[in-house]
Amino acid sequence: MSDYKDNQYVILVDIADKPLSNKELMLKKSRLKSVFISNLSFIFALIVLGVAVTLRAFMLGYDKEHELFNISLYVGIWFGLFTGLMIDGNSKRKSQLVIVAVLISASSGLFASMLVMLIIGQTTVWITSINILASALACMWVLTRYDEVLKGLESTYYVDEKQFIYIRKASSYFKELYAFSEKIIAEDRLPLASEYWAYRDWVKNKARSNEVINK
Fold first, then answer.
1. Where are the alpha helices (DSSP H) in the chain?
2. Cross-strand bridge partners of residue 158
3. Residues 6 or more apart whose Cβ sits within 8 Å of residue 214
4. Which among 30, 49, 108, 204 is most buried, taking Cβ atoms within 10 Å?
5. Is 62 within 8 Å of 117 (Cβ atoms)?
């Protein structure tokens, strides 16, 4: 997965700059929620198409033993679990991605394989390969587009108690971070998750630069 700095939806924080105002934050949240809903609509539409084409294929007798159906579920579950474990996020975001990845992977595999069967009118030896390829491509989309939006939404959340304590401690040690914390206080809000990430990265970079100087 790419770093959050490469994510176009994540709030980028510059410690030397000023933090977002409450108005700017509300606009950012509104935009991200709109994109999130659009992605959910795409997933829902894909599931509906997959189910519809699959039912039609069953009615026409193309998958009498439900072999492709079982394969799609099996492949979808494993690809979905793999997708969820691939990301570096909290348990809530991992759980969301696993659920979405399983749904979209299984539906994509079913849709692709059943659609091919409907077009050619018979089962071929490479149908399973199409099923797996469709599932893999669907999970790649989840790992990029959908995960980016979720990470963007997460960046707009306010920090939890543990993150807030980290920010307080870091601000007490470094004047640059203290100055930025004062700007956040002036905005009359709690720090954001993205601001916590910026504090954490700033401290890590500071530690690395000190190590280089000491060497």
1. 22-59, 67-86, 91-120, 127-141, 147-155, 161-173, 175-186, 193-214
2. 192
3. none
4. 108
5. yes
Number of C-beta neighbours around residue 135 at 10 A: 30
Residue tagged 């587009």 (tokens): 145
Q: How far is CA 65 from CA 39, 62, 123, 135, in A?
A: 33, 9, 12, 21
Dmax over CA atoms of the chain, in Å, equals: 74
Question: Using H for helix, E for strand and C for coil, what is the string for 142-159?
Answer: HHHHHHHHHHHHHHCCEC
pLDDT of amino acid 211: 53
Q: Partners of 192 in the beta sheet? A: 158
Nearest to 12 by CA among 204, 152, 203: 152
Q: Tell me the residue length of the chain.
A: 215
Angle, in degrees to the nearest 10, between helices 175-186 and 161-173: 130
Exposure on the CB side of residue 144, measured as CA atoms within 13 A:
6
User: pLDDT digit of tens for each residue in the chain (215 aa)?
Assistant: 334 555 678 888 888 888 888 888 899 889 888 988 888 888 888 778 777 877 877 787 777 777 777 888 888 888 888 887 777 777 788 888 888 888 888 888 888 877 787 777 666 667 778 888 888 888 888 888 888 888 888 889 999 899 999 999 999 989 889 999 999 999 889 999 999 999 999 998 887 766 545 54
| Residue 47 pLDDT | 79
Enter the pTM of the model: 0.74
